[in-house]
Design a protein that fits this description.
The protein is built from six helices and 14 strands. With 281 residues, the protein is of the alpha+beta class.
Amino acid sequence: MASYATVADLRSYLPQVSEFGMQLITVSGTPFTLSYEGVSTGNLASSATATAVQTALRGITAIGSSGVNVRGKPGGPYTASFQGSLATDAALMTATNATLAPATDDVLQDCLDRATDTVRSTMRSLLADPTFDYLAYAAAATKIVRGIDSRYLRPPVYQSGSVTIVAYQSGSNPSAYTALPAYEWEETGDGRLYRSSGWWTGVDTRYQVTAVWGYGPTPPPSIVEVTLELAVNIWRTRDRGGFVDTVGVDGSGATKHIAGLTNLQQQVLIAQRDQLIAIGV
């Protein structure tokens, strides 16, 4: 599933993260060597361990004894993560019998995916809807909307411009619906349907509305912000095995907090839940 924010968005929250702060090393032959700022390691076997690669790189003066951490299985691919000042201004290495590529964006994307999963799971829990997703539009379908004493009818959230049919319930046969002429109603910019003569109301007055339903194609700004905040935390704590947040319940005493969300972030999602319920999701 797609993330609720982009790597470009996350980089704006992490301006200090260098494009070459993490580099992917893929071995293509043996022996292979790595070079940084014109200085090369000794020959490394194609089956070298990550520790061996790390030791060789740390032997380069410009990197130093703690300037890089290397992870990966023997033979690679390896991920070299530069530390200290090099984390923000590292140069791209060169190699023989190996290829180098920036890996930072892949890790940032993974952080965003994990953050999105947390937000998505929390909203599904809050709404008691295991299929809810901000990025998902369902196929066109018909839903029943109760009439209100107003010129504006508020259907559940739908894709703007997708309403094709509005039908009213017959008084003589409640199971039958008659389509209103298209000129009698129109969509408004805030998701309501306007009818100059008003919408009939009453205990049994209902309308059939055919539209593409869902909350997409982009989440609201508050959801994007929570996703980015979570992704920043994941990025900064990825070497410490993740992060933990207080676990508790919301004001209703019914919803368990999801680990990783701060209390403030949880309240933002609860507010979004309440807004969606209010408009009929």
